[in-house]
Amino acid sequence: MIVVGGGIGGLGAAFSLTRQGLSVRLLERAPAFGEVGAGIQLAPNCTRILDDYGLLEEAKGLGVVPDAMVMRDAVDGDELTRLDLRDLEKRYGYPYMVIHRSDLHGLLLRACERAGVELITDAQVTSYENTDGGARVTLASGETHEAGVVIAADGLHSVARKLFVDDEPVSSAYVAYRGTVPAEQPRVRSVDLSEVVVHVGPACHFVHYGLRGGELLNQVAVFESPKALAGREDWGTPDELDAAFAQTCDFVRDGLQFMWRDKWWRMFDREPIMNWVHGRIALLGDSAHPPLQYIAQGAIMAIEDGWVLGEHVARNRAEDGTVDWGAALAAYEAVRPEHCRRVLTTSRKWGELWHLDGVAREQRNVLLRARDTYDYAFTDWLYGPTALTPDEEPPMFTPIPLSSAAVEDAGRAEGE
Ligand code: FAD
To answer: Which end of the chain has less Cβ packing within 10 Å, N or C?
Structure first.
C-alpha cells in the first residue's frame, strides 16, 4: 500500500500498517524527511499508542514528563486553574508529555526504517485516482505508483482532499511565533520546568514548557493580527507581535525577545468533513481534519488515525493475509470523523475562551478559579482510550460525579 506524506501522521500510519504485516511505500515531496517548529504536547490518548508501538520509553527519554499544566491570566499573571499531570497519568494510565517535534518525527522515522517501510523522498503527488484493483497516484515527475490502498496524509493543503470537498483552509486571523530559550539564559532558571504553562489574554496567548530534559525552554506566542482582520495580505509580521502583547504581564513580555522573528505560522483550520474514504483512497491527519491548535490534538489525532486503521486492518484480515479493505476502511470512517469533528469545533471554542477581554474575561476567570483541579469532566472524552467503534466513543462531557458526601446530603434532603 501507499502512504502519501512523511509528516507525523504519514509516518505513524506507515508504521502502524507495516506492524500489521503490510508492505508500505511512503512518498514524501520534500528532498529530506524533517519537521519544522519546536515543541509538541502529547496527551495520554497518544502516549497510550506510543506505548503500544513500543516507542514510549524512547519518547520519554527524548522529552519531558511535566508535573502540572497551569493556566494563568496573561494580563496580571495570576493562576486561573491547573491539571495535576501525575494524577492525570494515574487516571488515564499513560503520561502527558512534551517533546521536540523533530525528536517525535525522528522517533517515528526510525521506527518506520526498522519496520521496513519503503521511504521515498522528492516524490510530489499531483493526482489520485481509483483503479479496478486499488488506487494510483501520479507524481510531478510523471511517474505513477499503484497499490491496493492509498492513504493521503498530505497535510493542510492536501491534494487528495479535493476528491472529497471543494473547500479552502479557514483563516483564524491568528498567527503563532515560536522560539526556544537555551538553558544558560537567566529566563530558564526563573521558570519551573516541571510545568506546562499557558498565559491567556485578550486576543493573545503565550505557552511555555521545558524540552529535552530541561536543556531548552520552548515558547509559543499567538495573537490575532489586526492586518489580517483588515484583509491585508502581509499579515502576522513581527511588528504586530510586540504590539499584540503590550498589555500583558512582565513575564510574558520578557519572553518575546526569544521568539524567532524570521518565521511565523498563520493559524488555519478547515470545516469538518465526515467523509474520508473514496474507493481505495483515504484521508488521514491534517488532510482530513486540520485543527486550530488550542487543545493540542492535531498530531495526536493523526497518530490515532493510523493506529485505528491498523487495528481495523487486523480485524479484517483473512488467514492468508489478504485484507478486506472495504470493511477496514468503512470501520475507520465510521469512528474517526465524528471524534475529529468534536476536536475541531472544541478547539475553536477553547480559543475563543482563552482570548476573551473585558467583563467576559473576568467572568471566565471566576469560573476557572472555581474549577476543581481533579475534575476530569472536560478531558475524559479526549484523553481516554481511542475508540475503535462509534459505540466506544465516550460522550463529549461526562457528568461531574457527585462526591459521596454530596450524594448523602442529597439523600437526606430527599428524606426530609
Ligand atoms: P503535516 O505535518 O502537514 O505533514 C504532511 C506531509 O506531507 C509533509 O511532510 C509534506 O511535505 C507532505 N506532503 C504534502 N503534500 C504532498 C504531496 N502532494 N506529495 C507528497 N508529499 C506531500 N498537535 C498536537 O498534537 N500537539 C500540539 O501540542 C500541537 N501544537 C501545535 C502548535 C502549533 C503552533 C501548530 C501550528 C500546530 C500544532 N499541532 C499540535 C498540530 C500538528 O502540528 C499537526 O496537526 C500535525 O503536525 C499534522 O501532521 P500531518 O502529518 O497530518 O500533516
So the answer is: C
